Amino acid sequence: MTFKMFVTALIDFFNTAVIPLLMSLVLLIFMWGVVQYFFIKKEDPEARIEGAKFMMWGVIAFAVIVSMWGLVSLLLNSFGI
């Protein structure tokens, strides 16, 4: 096994297993914030703030994951890996 084959296998593993798992986790965090904000604790203002924080961090995490995924794809395509 050459180094290029190892790197390709590692990248394929991340693209098919790790990244979708992280995106699913971020989606669950965001949805938990939505449920807290709109349904569970809609009368308690402090609890609504906590739900809004979950939603905000979910969006930030999703943006970071997608940005890093795109940057890695750009670098891989640039170097022909």
Detailed description of the structure:
The structure is a single chain. With 81 residues, this protein is mostly helical. The protein has one domain (3-79). Helix content is 90%, strand content 0%. The protein contains 2 helices and no strands. It has helices at 3-40, 45-79. It is elongated, with a radius of gyration of 18 Å. The two termini are 15 Å apart.
Brief overview, please?
This protein has 81 residues and is mainly alpha-helical. The protein is built from two helices and no strands.
Through-space gap between termini:
15 Å
**Roughly what fraction of the amino acids lie in strands?**
under 5%
What profile does the largest beta sheet have? none
Taken together, the total number of domains comes to 1
Stretches where pLDDT falls below 50 for ≥5 residues?
none
Structural class: mainly alpha
Our Rg estimate from Cα atoms comes to: 18 Å
Count every helix, treating DSSP H or I runs of 4 or more residues as helices: 2
How many strand units? 0
**Global outline:** elongated
| Rounded mean pLDDT score | 87
Quaternary state, please?
single chain
SSE string: HH
**What share of residues is helical?**
over 70%
